[in-house]
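Hi R.,

Here's the chain you asked about this morning:
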Amino acid sequence: MLQTIYRLPAVKSASGYSRSTIYLRIAQGLWTRQVSLGRRCVGWPANEVVALNANRIAGKTDQEIRELVVKLEAARKLPAGGQP
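And the predicted structure, written out as tokens:
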């Protein structure tokens, strides 16, 4: 399965959020944490950005978004097949 990682400009474009709002939402638990791509390079899995946008559009509450963030970040730790 192809995994795309969005860098910050793509995340800003896809979400409509500014850089500071993205990092504020991370601190609030309303956005997934970035993944390290190198010493000075980070990004976000595209599927997470899409899922967060879809849930926000669907009118999910902040608590529901926080629960989604926990699930998305937990899924990062699973092997590629999705099974433990």
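The chain has a mean pLDDT of 93.

Let me know if you need anything else.
M.
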